[in-house]
From TrEMBL:
InterPro entries, per the entry: Glutathione-S-Trfase_C_sf (IPR036282), Glutathione_S-Trfase (IPR040079), Glutathione_S-Trfase_N (IPR004045), Thioredoxin-like_sf (IPR036249)
Classification of source organism: Bacteria, Pseudomonadati, Pseudomonadota, Alphaproteobacteria, Maricaulales
Any coiled-coil regions, as ranges: none
Any GO BP: glutathione metabolic process
Domain of life: Bacteria
Annotated Pfam families: GST_C_2, GST_N_2
Domain called GST N-terminal: residue spans: 4-84
Protein name (database record): Glutathione S-transferase
A GO MF term: glutathione transferase activity
Length: 215
């Protein structure tokens, strides 16, 4: 059996870490988490000691490091095949949806960074609202075509990739459709997410610049 160690950033702020962590929890493979406080003196050196990418998450598999959330997801999917839809067409669509999140939606990343302890109803920038509407409409369309409660019927890697986005809708009061609101509630009531959220609410570390966004 592989020895797995997942290096993550802070629970409250590290969206990519949350994705990888939840996917690993869904596999039920044993692993240990090592959390590294972000934006403190020396933190980048610690990350570069783990991998040349110098980012989190990073998964150490028997000494070999996978330094990317999507690559970690693919590693997990090989170990536990049901993390992607079984239907070939749905599998391809889920892959495309995940890739869209992996590389896109720059405005919502910038203007509404993940901050699980945050609750605000402040006015959000227009480009952020445009992307929020695009995401909500995409969720609506997928949920309308499938039986749900998840994007491709059963829970998949796609839902893990949109979980941190769902938290942004809550944190910043972003508008969404009724169906998308139900989906957000479904994602945020997941027991693994609630385990992560509880850790976020108890950790002492703060990122002042992130907390100041649209405050």
């Amino acid at each position: 059996m592989s020895n797995l160690t997942l290096y993550i950033g802070n629970y409250n702020y590290s969206s990519w870490s949350l994705r990888a962590w939840q996917i690993l929890r869904k596999t039920e493979l044993p692993f240990q988490s090592v959390m590294i406080d972000l934006d403190v003196p020396g933190y980048k050196d610690k990350l570069l000691q783990i991998s040349d990418a110098g980012t989190v998450p990073a998964l150490d598999v028997n000494g070999a490091v996978i330094p990317d959330s999507l690559a970690i997801a693919e590693f997990c999917a090989k170990a536990v095949p049901n993390l992607w839809p079984k239907d070939e067409a749905l599998w391809a669509e889920a892959k495309a949806v995940v890739q869209k999140m992996h590389t896109g939606f720059e405005a919502i990343r910038r203007e509404a960074p993940m901050n699980l302890r945050r609750r605000t109803q402040g006015v959000m920038p227009a480009d952020c609202l445009v992307e929020a509407a695009e995401i909500s409409d995409m969720w609506d369309e997928l949920l309308g075509r499938h039986d749900g409660p998840f994007l491709f019927n059963e829970w998949t890697i796609a839902d893990a990739f949109y979980l941190p986005v769902a938290t942004r809708f809550e944190s910043y009061g972003l508008p969404r459709t009724t169906r998308s609101d139900v989906y957000i509630s479904e994602l945020m009531s997941d027991p693994h997410y609630l385990e992560w959220e509880a850790l976020a609410f108890t950790e002492a570390h703060i990122l002042p610049e992130t907390d100041a966004v649209n405050s």
